Amino acid sequence: MKYFLFCLSFLFSITAFSQTPFKSEITIDATQKGQEISPLQYGQFIEHLGRAVAGGIYDEHSTLSDSNGFRMDVLEKVKELRTPVLRYPGGTFTKIYHWQDGVGPKASRKKRKNLIWGGVDDNHFGTAEFIVYCRKIGAEPFLVVNMATGTPEEAANWVEYCNGTTDTYYANLRRKDGFENPFNVKYWGIGNEEGAEPDMGRHQDVDQYIKDTWQFVKMMKLQDSSLKLVLVGNPEDLHWSRTVLARLGPVCDYLSIHLYSIPADTSFKSLIQSIDRIEQPLTQVDSLLTATPINVENFSRWYRFPARSGPIKIAVDEWGIWDINSGKGKGAYGLEYQYNWLHALGVATFLNLFQRHSHSIGMATWAQTVNVLAPIMSDSAGSYRQTIFAPLKAFRDYVGKYNLPTQTTTHESSPGIKAIDAASSRSGDSNQIILTIVNRDVDHSAETVVHVKNHQLSQQRVTLKQISYTGKSLYSVNSATNENTVIKTEIKKNVAPTDFKIMLAPASFTVIILNGLQ
Ligand code: AHR
Questions:
Q1: In this predicted model, what pLDDT tens digit does every residue of 424-482 receive, in sequence order?
Q2: Are residues 244 and 157 in the same domain?
Q3: Whose CA is nearest to atom 6 of ligand 1?
């Protein structure tokens, strides 16, 4: 059987490469500084949903866990993603979450039914455990408050518990729990998908959301005026997003939108179409932000805290591939998927899309980190990285500080699908230009000519590093017993910095790094 699979994957790569390559061109405009790419674009999300927290990042009873109860094997993999920001505790789960259930001595924490996602939560992983986890992985914590069954006062008390420095009840409660110094949580979401009718929310009406949110904002900002607030938008309901921006704009730092790819079937075409289609709502929300004044005028001093400063950005605080139609997911609500190689190409396409919108996207957190729609899977014996781990890590590791305008000339590999998808960036010191390219033609390799417009580039040759990622086959998946279906290769060569040619394997994503430009 093993031999048969080997022959099959060998045949796949041989046939793919023996087809005539197609030609494409990429032009990078490096005459401009480019738009800053927020490093927070490479964040993650974790929710009390199925085995994401309990049995995922946290398992007190496992021999694989440390003294905090954190699964060490999982932690090592999360660390590899170099997550800059981690969102918690939901998601829809926030609608039933009361933060006080998850603080204090573990033995006296209340067990609660998880009314949203099923099961029982013993609340042994709560605020302090989340903060310690963030510190271990080097991520900024991002908390979301319950505005469905919670109150503005409860949210403000949570702010005091986390950030309070005075001799007051909730700050002292944190001290009593063993944390003298404040947690300094900067990012706070108020609500989650509040327009979603089937969920436990009470804000399907945008006017009601705005009225209630004002109360939350006031109470929370009076506790700590430096908070950065993430308020609920809706990429499918522009009226909702426009109204939130118009009426809560003075206190909104980020407008939350959730962008899931939900392919119609298991074909690559539907997957890519579902991601390419996201460009439209994203562009529409971009335009709403452009139309929102950057400066806030006449903000009453009687609010007793300052208005937002700086432009409002988008927080894509949930994104991912929700392949519900494959019907193959396990666990709670079938959300434990196996992601194949094509999904990894989908993730790379998504990340290029976000990079191109870096002028407006201030933050993005992949939903979710472990077991649920996740790049990392675990069971009681160990854990492994799924195929989608590769693009999440590669983009975080290699993409530069400024996005550069990039144009692509390519054919359609199937009607409506452009074969080549590309984005490029410049490093902070301008020494490097980094290109991230997805060849979405699964049958043909691409012979791609890259032009770099830059009047400052000398004609001397520079080093080009090409890091290519392919799958063993289009539908190959990693598993607990085989984590090696993603093939990474590296080559280096010297090229002229303004024009050079590269070959891209079929169904691949590639990082090109031009080094030594100055
Ligand atoms: O990520 C899973 C769920 O998807 C989240 O709880 C919810 O916000 C979204 O619809």
A1: 999 999 889 999 999 999 999 999 999 999 867 666 888 999 999 999 999 999 999 99
A2: yes
A3: 91
Number of domains in the chain: 2
Q: Is the CB of 256 under 6 A from ligand 1?
A: no
- Out of 398, 418, 436, pick the residue that ends a domain: 398
Residue nearest to atom 7 of ligand 1 (CA): 91
Beta strands at 187-190 and 228-232: parallel, antiparallel or unpaired: parallel
Residue 19 predicted with pLDDT over 90: no
Read off the pLDDT of each residue in 366-391 and give the average, rounded to a whole number. Answer: 98
- Specify whether 227 is located in the same domain as 322: yes
Rounded to the nearest whole angstrom, what is the distance from the C-alpha of residue 91 to the centroid of ligand 1?
5
Mark whether 310 and 444 lie in a shared domain.
no
Do 258 and 296 belong to one domain? yes
Residues 265, 368, single domain; the answer is yes
Domain boundary among 338, 371, 398: 398
> Which of 104, 76, 121 has its CA nearest to residue 170?
104
Q: pLDDT tens, 250-286? A: 999 999 999 999 999 889 999 999 999 999 999 999 9
Looking at ligand 1, which residue's alpha carbon is closest to its atom 8? 91
Residue 47 CA to ligand 1 center (angstroms) comes to: 9
Atom number in ligand 1 closest to CA 192: 8
Q: What is the DSSP string of 265-334?
A: SSSHHHHHHHHHTTHHHHHHHHHHHHTS-SSPPS--GGG-SPPP-S--EEEEEEEEE--GGG---BSGGG
Of the listed ranges 48-52, 112-116, 126-130, 193-197, the one predicted with least confidence: 193-197
SS3 514: strand
Beta carbon of 194 within 6 Å of any ligand 1 atom: no
pTM: 0.95
